[in-house]
Specification:
The complex is a heterodimer of chains A (274) and B (589). Chain A is of the alpha/beta class. Chain A folds into two domains: 4-229, Alpha-Beta Barrel (TIM Barrel), CATH 3.20.20; 231-274, no CATH class. Chain A contains 13 helices and eight strands. In chain A, strands 1-2-3-4-5-6-7-8 form an eight-stranded parallel β-barrel, surrounded by seven helices. In chain A, helix 4 runs parallel beside helix 6 (106-120), helix 7 crosses helix 8 and helix 8 (167-177) packs parallel to helix 9 (192-201). The two termini of chain A are 35 Å apart. Chain B is α+β, with helices and mostly antiparallel strands and 589 residues long. Chain B has 25 helices and 17 strands. In chain B, helix 7 (212-228) runs antiparallel to helix 21 (492-503) and helix 13 (341-356) runs parallel beside helix 16 (393-399). The longest helix of chain B has 21 residues, at 509-529. The chains are: A alpha/beta (274), B alpha+beta (589). At the A-B interface, helix 2, helix 9, helix 10 and helix 11 of A face helix 7, helix 19 and helix 21 of B.
Chain lengths: 274, 589
């Protein structure tokens, strides 16, 4: 079981919506101070604003680069990251070039990351893989490239993709990068049970916008913990179940559904819905 | 001690005399207020042999330590012994009455005895007055409230009964601030049995707060937490409680035609979305409530408030009706007549199934919309078959030799969730201290809405633990006299913070949980002494043996036995549900 004080220090308190203005960012910073979150994660135009709001506190500013698609040029990402560091960001979450990785242009992907590592200087770099658009093999490859390129963290999702973080992906990422590289889970995380599952799977940081409401629910966790942590129906926490033809490329959707058809939990799932 | 006013008024209607009680800090710390303190006081004033409708029965109106200070703190609780179930019972209502009552300088009122003629109580800064209410007897609730305001103060808040309470309908409600109801358990019938038509209150005293600056900060935090929670910050605000119609129906557990099915094909027509399209003309809020789940509505004939989720179900799917206007007007009628909508609609559904099975003497078909409002009036006035329906579904089904067709627990009609689709909610229904009620523990939160987390609704694993936990927390929130929607958005820490700011009493979440457990066990202990046992912690056989045959909850039954033993053990009760001596000692009961 994790203590509340430990938990808050694993959370990047996040607000990355396009429609959020200074008032929301200001609230985000106030909440991060009040609850003692590790950082606030904001779009790069709010870096200076957040840094000023958090001056004197131990809450860091984390900013994104190439967000949310990761499809801009390396120079653009590097400039955005460097500028953010200059304005007070201590951590940068960049989006990997997902299309390049799926094209197997691995050196391009590595160079893209390495350039941002340089631009970050003393700041820490997390690389968002956008795992929903990758096969397991591609996730493994992407993790290796991130480590080789000098990134300090790999991260699952932007929160704007087809789906967010799942324990299966976190386990795979942790296994690939080993114990000394950070693994950040993000995207669609709403409550302490999901947080707990991801931590158990190997996440060392959690990015979420529902941190405050999650903590309210967390007070219940210590009562009847065995009840809250009863095992899930495996399909409910499996990315394959959340694959949607409307949101994924045809090939990826087929990939996930093929995984379902050979899944050892298939019978259990069918029994549940019988 | 700050927060509480420190005085409770006790009135004996036999003699017309009153006295002031100070229950003392010890009881306030152990039972807080509202439900908890009310139950404790009730057990001191009455015994398990006290008849619910007798003059000896006490009827207690209580506020809580936070009343008048924080969000949703206009509520009050009514505590007595229920004529519907025979259990100890508390019924809660929103609006402003609780806050206004407290501002008269009293934390609550205890009423005993029976007036020789109809009376109402007028409580204000100068004290209490017993006033003659002969001219008000027979009036509906809105008119009663208006007349009493004319006679007392135009800003008075009035809690009253309608014809249903006067005529002893076993599920009569107490209504306040127009359409807010202490609905469940027949508290209105107890009030009527005392010839007490209403209590009117208006006061100007302020609640003394321990840490006003701290409270200001906590108030802002609570607003933020309410706003951030998807249920309190969005769904309830936009669509009201009826947002649940489509949600519950989609889970195959929207009880249809007396719980025969879990899917209502016409659910869309009575949904929160449809209410917003067809009849909504505004939102309304209780005292200091930022959620404002109340719906101001208008049909082609009338206007009023609601229907809430449970009501649109009770006069919708439960009786096979898909006409939103009819369900809305039946709701208006219940409010005006002073009836609990859940028990009313559920009992009508029971009668319809009895007719379908060929044992009820009067034709009553599913979805017979033109008769619904008239039937509601017949129940309130005890006319025709309404007289039988006024006794509730349990007595009705027993009379016609089909007790299994009453969808009730301990005599109280079940609300709008088929327990076959949610095992923890099923256990919560079965073990509820006041009977078939979702408000003792709302496990729909974790089992359907994912609040605070989504649980496997068909599994029984860990469910005894969750039910016990939710029952205890709910007892705390009811005893703080706050709205249970806050329980969705706030953790125990935040409730503790509010209590500290207002009263200066610092309680850890463990201590708050202990208070909840104490209250729940005290209620249970009273019920056991009144003759309730394991056999009463039972659901109608339909849920245990008949599988739902369609929808996402198909092929399911409730596995009650798998959970009940574990639940008793967790509670510190024996296998018949009797609290053990050491449990009572540990909880200082």
């Amino acid at each position: 079981m994790i203590e509340k004080e430990q938990l808050v220090k694993m959370i990047d308190h996040t607000e990355l919506n396009s429609h959020s203005g200074e008032k929301k960012i200001s609230n985000l910073c106030d909440e991060a101070r009040k609850f003692g979150f590790f950082s606030v994660c904001v779009n790069s135009c709010y870096t200076r604003f957040a840094a000023e709001k958090l001056f004197g506190s131990d809450v860091l500013v984390c900013t994104v680069a190439g967000f949310p698609l990761g499809a801009c040029t390396t120079a653009t990402k590097a400039f955005e990251a460097g500028k953010s560091v200059e304005e007070g960001a201590m951590e940068i979450d960049m989006v990997m070039n997902v299309g390049a990785l799926r094209d197997k242009r691995y050196s391009y992907v590595k160079e893209d990351i390495a350039e941002v590592v340089k631009a970050c200087g003393p700041a820490l770099l997390k690389v968002i893989l956008e795992t929903c658009y990758l096969t397991d093999e591609e996730i493994v490859e992407a993790c290796k490239i991130c480590v080789d390129a000098g990134a300090q963290f790999v991260k699952t999702s932007t929160g704007f993709g087809a789906f967010g973080a799942f324990p299966d992906h976190i386990r795979l990422m942790r296994k690939t990068v080993g114990p000394h590289i950070g693994v950040k889970a993000s995207g669609g995380i709403k409550n302490f049970k999901e947080v707990w599952r991801l931590i158990q799977a190997g996440a060392s940081r959690i990015g979420m916008s529902a941190g405050v409401t999650m903590l309210e629910g967390f007070t219940l966790f210590k009562y009847a913990p065995q009840a809250w942590l009863e095992p899930e129906i495996p399909c409910h926490v499996c990315p394959s179940r959340h694959a949607s033809l409307g949101k994924l490329p045809k090939a990826l959707y087929t990939y996930y559904k093929q995984k379902c058809s050979s899944c050892p939990h298939k019978d259990e799932y069918n029994k549940f819905y019988d | 001690m700050k927060g509480w006013m420190g005085k409770i008024l006790k009135i004996d209607l036999n003699s017309g005399t009153s006295e002031t009680l100070d229950v003392g800090d010890d009881l306030r710390k152990k039972y807080l207020g509202g439900r908890g303190l009310g139950v404790k006081l009730y057990t001191q004033l009455c015994t398990p042999s006290t008849k619910p409708m007798s003059p000896e029965n006490a009827l207690i109106f209580l506020t809580g330590p936070l009343t008048g200070t924080v969000q949703t703190s206009g509520r009050y609780q009514v505590i007595s012994r229920s004529p519907l179930t025979g259990t100890i019972c508390d019924s809660s209502s929103g609006g402003n009455f609780g806050a206004v009552l407290k501002k008269t300088g009293f934390d609550g009122i205890i009423v005993t005895g029976k007036a020789s003629k109809p009376v109402y109580l007028w409580l204000n800064d100068s004290g209490i007055e017993i006033r003659e209410a002969g001219s008000l007897w027979g009036m509906k609730t809105h008119e009663t409230q208006e007349k009493i305001k004319e006679q007392t103060h135009n800003k008075a808040s009035v809690a009253c009964i309608g014809p249903a309470g006067e005529n002893g309908v076993l599920y009569a409600a107490i209504m306040n601030d127009n359409d807010r109801a202490a609905g469940r358990g027949g508290m209105g019938a107890v009030m009527g049995s005392k010839n007490l038509k209403a209590i009117a209150a208006f006061g100007t005293r302020e609640v003394d707060v321990h840490d006003p600056e701290g409270l200001k900060q906590t108030y802002a935090l609570v607003n933020k937490l309410i706003d951030k929670n998807p249920v309190t910050g969005k769904s309830l605000q936009v669509l009201g409680t009826s947002v649940l119609v489509n949600v519950i129906n989609a889970h195959g557990m929207f009880p249809t035609e007396n719980f025969k099915r879990g899917v209502f094909n016409d659910a869309e027509g009575i949904s929160g979305e449809k209410i917003a399209e067809m009849i909504l003309h505004g939102r309304s809020a209780c005292y200091k409530c930022p959620i404002a789940c109340g719906r101001s509505t208008r049909t082609s004939k009338k206007e009023g408030e609601g229907p809430e989720y449970e009501t649109v179900w009770a006069f919708g799917a439960q009786i096979g009706n898909n006409d939103l206007q009819v369900a809305t007007e039946a709701n208006y009628a219940c409010n005006e007549l002073g009836l609990d909508t859940i028990s009313t609609g559920n009992t009508i559904g029971c009668a319809m199934e009895l007719w379908e099975k060929g044992v009820f003497p009067e034709s009553l078909d599913w979805g017979e919309t033109q008769r619904v409002v008239g039937l509601v009036e017949d129940i309130a006035y005890g006319r025709g078959i309404g007289k039988e329906l006024a006794l509730g579904s349990k007595r009705l089904a027993e009379k016609y030799g089909k007790p299994g067709l009453a969808m009730q627990v301990k005599g109280m009609e079940l609300p709008a969730y088929d327990p076959r689709g949610a095992q923890a909610q099923a256990l919560a229904f079965a073990t509820s201290n006041r009977g078939g009620c979702h408000m003792r523990a709302y496990l729909i939160g974790p089992e359907i809405l994912g609040q605070p987390v989504l649980m496997d609704r068909f599994s029984t694993a860990g469910k005894a633990e969750l039910v016990s936990l939710f029952q205890d927390i709910s007892a705390v929130v009811d005893s703080l006299s706050l709205c249970r929607f806050l329980q969705i958005a706030l953790g125990l820490d935040t409730f503790g913070l509010m209590l500290k700011n207002v009263t200066g009493i610092e309680l850890t979440d463990e201590e708050l949980m202990q208070i909840g457990k104490r209250i729940y066990t005290l209620e249970r202990d009273f019920n056991v002494k009144a003759g309730f046992c394991r056999q009463d912690d039972m659901l109608p056989p339909r849920f245990l043996t008949e599988e739902l045959d369609e929808g996402p909850s198909r092929n399911r039954v409730v596995k009650l036995d798998e959970m009940l033993d574990r639940y008793y053990a967790l509670r510190g009760w024996d296998n018949q549900g009797n609290p053990l001596e050491e449990t009572l000692t540990e909880l200082e009961i």
